[in-house]
Design brief:
The complex is a heterodimer of chains A (289) and B (299). With 289 residues, chain A is mainly α. Chain A has helices at residues 6-11, 18-45, 50-53, 68-79, 84-115, 123-132, 139-148, 156-163, 166-176, 181-189, 194-205, 207-222, 238-246, 253-284. Chain A has two domains: 6-71, no CATH class; 77-284, MetI-like fold (Orthogonal Bundle), CATH 1.10.3720. In chain A, helix 5 (84-115) crosses helix 9. Helix content of chain B is 77%, strand content 4%. The relative contact order of chain B is 0.10. Classes of the chains: A mainly alpha (289), B mainly alpha (299).
């Protein structure tokens, strides 16, 4: 097996054979190409004039790159009575708020389940069942509930249902269970309260988990559309704008691709940021008993 | 019960439970409002005739008529469900194997690791929500995703293999597998990320010890890495089962959404309830079987 250990590398450089390196490189390169090519192609489409998009057989690279698609995109966006920046603000506001609160709530819920041995029978099946039911399946009762609570046409339908998304609890519980119980016990003996243990002991230990959860949560909220709960154009999200422009269909493919680039960039930035942080934590704060 | 406990009002275990519930309650309230309540409503639709009227919704009790409608009067549904279950099983196993392999590779130190990781996370970013609809409209991407043979020249490969005198069914299954690579790779982004987080939570000390004891990398992988990440293998397995059974492309999910969009709420809820009940049984069975073999820090 090619798994290499970090500490050994420090002592003895070049532990693995050159052939092994080449094999890993080729394998990762092929897989990476699988994942990357369709995306690169679509992004390149954002710089193609329309006649080049529909050439058959399709051409991968741009022959005559143009920024016209972006200017048309902004022209389309400025033609609407809500400025583009408002959609962007709505999306960022809703997504960041939801992600932060979601992580806190699900970690709080996971903590007693993982570390108190609080066995609430049936809770796990509840979590699994609620993961099964995608929001689309429960749309109708959700709509009726939100209408009763006067949530419709505010920011709340974007935020509130996502706060208790079950995947967060599922993930945090699994990671928290791996923290040695001795850590919690010794903190208790030293006189730490439940909040102190939660914030100062448990949460720093599961940093990789909530950094990963942040990416998932950000994505699922960022990519959502108003889906009937919000009809005031000023409160709609970037995704709605893109969907509107996409409704132009094939004739606007390159323009909607230009708009889609705005959707792709923030998640990728967040991902790069969190992944670097995860590495940092793990390098300096291993679990030591 | 002794005096001290009486004075405090609650036993130690009781206070723990109360404290636990304080931590749990915000989440529990959210889940009750936005999952349990809609779930019960959907469950009730199954036994009713649901019509939307101005001013509200009208429900008329019809008993088991909807279930009969879905499973007896339309025979294709049962076959559709069994086929969906069978194909998802294979996908889950392949996804697990692939994602653990990819995560182990990505967890190593090499130049440009952050970039490579980002590339492997791209499917998660792209394969949800609105972006998907954009990509689906894109001719080239569509041709890759729904018919991978365009980039793999799989038809040419088939002809070539057959000209070597190989069995037709064998050639077919080989090219089917190749065609599925794209789906597998694109569906395992979340799993790779979870495994990466899991691999990083393995204490470095253990690797030092095993190396000092003279274990080979192969032994270390099976005796240290795999047991320590086994809780996350379970987590990922459950996630993969749920994810692939409720994938938007799954024929059953498609039928559920079609019925919903045609405003046949009762048919859609009956079909989804039965299907999810089957998936739940599979998930819980898998969890029950696997949890015995999973390492836990508390034992």
């Amino acid at each position: 097996m090619v798994r290499r250990k970090v500490f050994r590398r420090r002592i003895r450089r070049g532990n693995r054979s050159a052939a092994g390196n080449v094999c890993i490189f080729i394998f990762l390169f092929l897989l990476g190409a699988f994942m990357l090519l369709p995306l690169v192609y679509s992004c390149l489409n954002a710089f193609k004039p329309l006649e080049e998009v529909y050439i058959y057989p399709p051409r991968f690279f741009v022959r005559n790159p143009t920024l016209e698609n972006f200017s048309v995109f902004f022209k389309l966006a400025s033609g609407l009575h809500v400025p583009f920046i408002r959609y962007l603000f709505n999306s960022l506001f809703v997504t960041i708020l939801t992600t932060v609160v979601h992580i806190v709530l699900s970690s709080m819920a996971a903590y007693p389940l993982a570390k108190y041995r609080l066995r609430l029978s049936g809770l796990f099946s509840l979590v699994v069942v609620s993961m099964l039911f995608t929001s689309a399946v429960l749309w109708l009762p959700n709509y009726i509930l939100m209408a009763k609570m006067h949530f419709l046409n505010t920011y709340l339908p974007y935020i509130v249902p996502n706060l208790a998304a079950p995947i967060g609890l599922f993930l945090m519980k699994q990671f928290m269970e791996q923290i040695p119980f001795a850590l919690v016990e010794s903190a208790t003996i030293d006189g730490a309260g439940h909040w102190t243990i939660f914030w100062r002991i448990v949460m720093p230990q599961v940093k990789p988990a909530w950094m990963t959860l942040a990416v998932f949560s950000f994505l699922s909220v960022w990519n959502q559309a108003s889906s009937g709960f919000v009809y005031d154009e000023r409160l709609k999200l970037l995704g709605d704008l893109i969907a509107n422009i996409n409704a132009g269909g094939f004739s606007r493919l390159n323009i909607s691709m230009a708009g889609t680039l705005f959707m792709i960039v923030p998640p990728i930035l967040l991902f790069l940021f969190t992944q670097n942080r995860v590495l940092e934590t793990m390098a300096y704060a291993g679990i030591k008993e | 019960m002794n005096k001290r406990q009486k004075r405090r009002g609650l036993s130690y275990a009781g206070r723990r439970t109360v404290n636990g519930l304080v931590f749990l309650s915000p989440w529990l309230i959210g889940v009750t409002a936005f999952f349990v309540y809609p779930f019960i409503s959907t469950f009730l639709y199954m036994f009713h005739d649901v019509t939307l009227e101005p001013g509200g919704m009208k429900m008329e009790f019809t008993g088991l008529k909807n279930l009969q409608e879905v499973f007896i009067n339309s025979p294709t549904n049962v076959r559709m469900i069994t086929e969906a279950l069978a194909s998802s099983f294979g996908t889950v196993i392949l996804i697990m194997l692939f994602s653990i392999f990819a995560a182990v590779l990505l967890n190593q130190k090499f130049h440009g690791r952050a970039v490579v990781r980002a590339i492997f996370a791209l499917p998660i970013i792209v394969s949800s929500g609105i972006l998907l609809s954009v990509f689906k409209e894109d001719l080239f991407v569509r041709s890759i995703q729904s018919d991978p043979s365009t980039i793999f020249q799989s038809t040419a490969l088939q002809d070539m293999l057959q000209s070597f005198g190989l069995d037709v069914t064998l050639v077919q299954s080989i090219s089917d597998m190749i065609n599925r690579i794209m789906d597998i790779v694109w569906q395992s982004g979340v799993q790779i990320l979870l495994f990466l987080a899991a691999l990083q939570s393995v204490p470095r000390v253990l690797y030092e010890v095993s190396s000092a004891e003279g274990a080979t990398t192969w032994q270390t992988f099976w005796k240290v890495t795999i047991p320590l990440i086994s809780p996350y293998i379970l987590l990922n397995g459950l996630y993969s089962i749920i994810d692939s059974f409720t994938f938007y492309d799954n024929p059953v999910m498609k039928e559920v959404m079609n019925q919903f969009n045609d405003m046949n709420y009762e048919v859609s809820s009956a079909l989804s309830m039965v299907y999810f009940a089957i998936v739940l049984v599979i998930t819980l069975a898998a969890a029950g079987l696997a949890s015995r073999h999973v390492y836990s820090a508390e034992k």
